[in-house]
Write a structure and sequence with these properties.
The complex is a heterodimer of chains A (285) and B (437). Chain A is an alpha+beta fold and 285 residues long. Chain A has helices at 3-17, 25-33, 49-57, 107-111, 137-141, 165-169, 175-178, 190-203, 247-274; strands at 35-40, 83-89, 92-98, 117-119, 125-127, 148-149, 158-159, 185-189, 223-226. Chain A has a 3-stranded mixed β-sheet. With 437 residues, chain B is mostly helical. Chain B has helices spanning 8-30, 39-61, 77-89, 92-102, 112-127, 130-133, 142-145, 154-181, 184-214, 232-258, 265-300, 303-306, 309-334, 338-362, 376-397, 409-417. The longest helix of chain B is centred in the middle third of the chain and has 36 residues, at 265-300. Classes of the chains: A alpha+beta (285), B mainly alpha (437). At the A-B interface, helix 1, helix 4, helix 5, strand 6 and helix 9 of A face helix 2, helix 4, helix 8 and helix 9 of B.
Chain lengths: 285, 437
């Protein structure tokens, strides 16, 4: 542990003794400005235009655009950052686009020891090639199993959706949003998207389940989903809870500076207390 | 030779001649000491050769060419066994140094060096095996040189601790190297660092033994509920105590046979006494561990999971490889049965392998249709790492004063004083003397 992190963690510890709200004040502020994408699955027709646009915008091979078969589920991969799958549900076939959820407090970024996986201030979670050492702890930590690793390359990369970070920097919309013919995808401030999603539910209470997937899941995600059927039927994990995943390691990280500062004097004290008088210092191995 | 003792020139020449002597000595020591054509050496050579070829393939073609890792299972046995189990097995070093240097339990002094050496080599090789598993190992310095500190990452803590702990263990072990070469002053200096290194080492071990468990805290939805709990770090720490000591017991038994000629009569005589002492500590900490396991189980309210294949597997781990060995340790100590202690130690070690592999591989995504099973090449490379460590261990134990008494450098120096310009003192101060009391 380096000094900087030590001091930082001590600071966090200090903050932790204050009322709980203080600790999350910073995160709440960031949350206002985060960008996200709202997916209205009731509008999606499964044309896979987003898949194609995604591949083109990010220099990936052209994906398989055959008609969707509910029997076959395609997962995102090193060469395909977003996938559209068909699901048999209570209201018939529903098409769902899936990709990185761009969590508000991403497990992958908390897991990364080099900050290669980074939650940008604008919201997208990106991966930086020059930092990553390929430990794949992000893959282990991600609740949605999104980061994909190039096992067949001697210079492997982590591949995942970046919310078209490069296009966003040029003030362009994410490729998938721009190319959706049904306006099933909306890009915007996460806060506004939640309002938009709620107003759609209020206006058409019979067309939607009254839940926005991603509003609270794992502490909130950048991608938000609306659906006509319960989200289990669309293959979403519904047992993840609302706690941001980095919280699970926080208790341990708080204990680190405590042990680092308490153990040495304690051990030295025990050593002195148990020392025999006739022993010579330091000559024993 | 016309030199004045203490002047700059003589110091320089002294260092030069000393360096030359060291190189000559080192080259002479490189030669094998025993028979070369033994079955063990044949097997080791075969495995090393295979391993080196496989490692070359791995770096040329990527991890997928030799491992069965997948997008679903990013970590296999190189992490689950080599690193996570290997480090638990190396826990003996911090426990024994705690007992000897902090608590002053002199009875265990004769096994300090072999234990620290084992621990150090385990870290170098098993934590070093991490480099094979890293997809982009050339970036391994990033979290160290500080261009991007991921301080919120448990992995960051573990990486730093591995590095620092290796240094601490090297310092703890270094007096043996100085004695081997015959550097008296260096030996004295290094000896003075020992207590500091021990305290630092125990602190680091507390954190990274538990930290290895904390790595899995974020895999909450992926590890079977019978194994996942927020107490994983504490369970990892407590189990590293008896895992390390069981390894010390096992290594001791093997050393008694393999390195018979290197063992001091003192260690030989006290060996059984030491083993029973360690068995007692194992039993104590294992009862604590078992109690914690039960507590976590009851607290988690996972009764319903017990009646399932994973539940039976959990019971195998906890009953056959925790409860039975802990009983065996207790009985073995009571009836002074050394074979029973060794059996218990082996059962305990199997239990640790099971536990670590359960969390990292077996109970990890137990629900997937296609499970990860290591390829023969992953196992071969793991064996390569183990054999490489054993060969280095054997080389060191056969040369340095590890199992025998520390070398009395005063006697050594008298021999070699005649050949060098080493500053002559008529009588060494009493406290310079190396003794093992």
């Amino acid at each position: 542990m380096d000094r900087r992190s030590f001091i930082k963690t001590l600071g966090v510890m200090g903050a932790a003794t204050l009322p709980g709200k203080k600790l999350f004040a910073e995160e709440a502020k960031e949350d206002k400005e985060l960008m996200g994408i709202l997916v209205d699955t009731t509008r999606c027709i499964g044309c896979q235009g987003c898949e194609e646009a995604c591949a083109e915008a990010n220099g990936l091979p052209k994906p398989n655009l055959d008609d969707l078969d509910p029997e076959i589920k395609v997962k995102t991969s090193v060469s395909q950052w977003c996938t559209v799958n068909a699901y048999e549900t209570d209201v018939g076939e529903v098409y769902v686009k899936k990709q990185c959820m761009h969590c508000n407090q991403p497990a992958c970024a908390a897991a990364c020891l080099t900050k290669a996986m980074l939650k940008t201030e604008e919201g997208p979670v990106i991966w930086r090639e020059d930092k990553c050492m390929g430990c794949r702890y992000c893959m282990l930590s991600c609740p949605f199993d999104i980061p994909k690793f190039e096992y067949d390359s001697p210079i492997p990369k982590i591949q995942k959706c970046t919310m078209c970070w490069n296009r966003l920097k040029k003030n362009e919309l994410p490729a998938c949003v721009e190319n959706c013919p049904m306006e099933a995808l909306v890009f915007g401030k996460r806060k506004d998207l939640i309002e938009e999603a709620n107003s759609r539910i209020y206006k058409n209470p019979d067309s939607y389940v009254h839940h926005i997937y991603g509003e609270h899941e794992v502490g909130g995600t950048g991608y938000l989903y609306l659906s006509a059927v319960p989200f289990e039927q669309l293959g979403f994990p519904t047992d993840l809870g609302t706690t941001p995943f980095p919280e699970f390691t926080k208790d341990f990280l708080y204990a680190v500076p405590v042990i680092l500062t308490l153990w040495p004097p304690l051990l030295l004290a025990i050593n002195r207390a148990t020392k025999h008088k006739e022993e010579n210092e330091g000559s024993e191995v | 030779m016309d030199t004045t003792i203490g002047s700059f020139t003589s110091r320089g020449e002294l260092l030069k001649s000393e360096f030359k002597r060291f190189i000559k000595f080192f080259i002479s020591e490189l030669r094998p000491k025993g028979k070369l054509l033994t079955p063990f050496n044949f097997i080791a050579a075969f495995i090393l050769l295979t391993g080196v070829i496989l490692i070359a393939i791995r770096f040329a073609k990527g991890l997928g060419s030799v491992t069965n890792l997948s997008q679903e299972y990013p970590w296999g046995i190189w992490i689950g066994f080599d690193v996570i189990t290997g480090v638990a097995f190396a826990g003996g070093a911090y426990v024994i140094t705690f007992m000897v240097y902090i608590l002053g339990m002199e009875k265990y002094h004769p096994i300090v060096r072999i234990t620290v050496l084992n621990g150090f080599l385990a870290y170098v090789f098993y934590a070093g095996a991490l480099l094979l598993d890293l997809g982009r190992p050339w970036n391994v310095i990033n979290p160290i040189i500080g261009n991007s500190f991921g301080v919120s990452s448990i992995m960051f803590l573990v990486a730093w601790h591995f590095m620092l702990y290796m240094m601490a263990e090297f310092i703890e072990f270094s007096p043996a190297i100085a004695e081997w070469i015959g550097w008296k002053r260096v030996r004295k200096f290094l000896g003075a660092l020992t207590l500091g290194a021990v305290i630092f080492g125990i602190t680091l071990s507390t954190l990274h033994q538990s930290g290895l468990g904390a790595l899995f805290l974020m895999a909450k939805n992926k590890i079977h509920p019978l194994w996942y709990s927020e107490f994983i770090p504490i369970l990892f720490f407590v189990s590293s105590i008896f895992a390390g000591l069981s390894m010390v017991i096992l290594e001791g038994s093997i050393s008694q046979k393999v390195f018979r000629h290197r063992i001091s009569s003192k260690l030989h005589a006290s060996h059984n006494d030491i083993v029973f002492g360690l068995a007692k500590i194992c039993a104590g900490t294992m009862y604590v561990y078992f109690f914690l396991k039960v507590l976590v189980f009851i607290h988690g309210q996972h009764w319903s999971y017990l009646n399932s294949p994973m539940g039976y597997w959990f019971l195998v781990e906890v009953i056959a490889f925790v409860l039975i060995p802990v009983r065996l340790f207790t009985q073995a100590v009571r009836y002074k049965n050394i074979t029973a202690v060794r059996t218990a130690a082996i059962l305990t070690l199997i239990g640790i392998i099971l536990n670590r592999l359960n969390i990292s591989v077996i109970a990890f995504k137990w629900y997937e249709a296609v499970r990860y099973i290591p390829s023969w090449m992953e196992i071969a490379i793991t064996l390569t790492v183990i054999f490489a460590e054993l060969l280095v261990l054997r080389w060191i134990v056969n040369r340095m004063p590890i199992l025998g008494d520390p070398i009395d450098l005063e006697a050594e120096e008298n021999k070699y004083r005649q050949k060098t310009l080493y500053p002559i003192k008529t009588k060494e101060p009493e406290e310079w003397k190396v003794s093992s009391t």
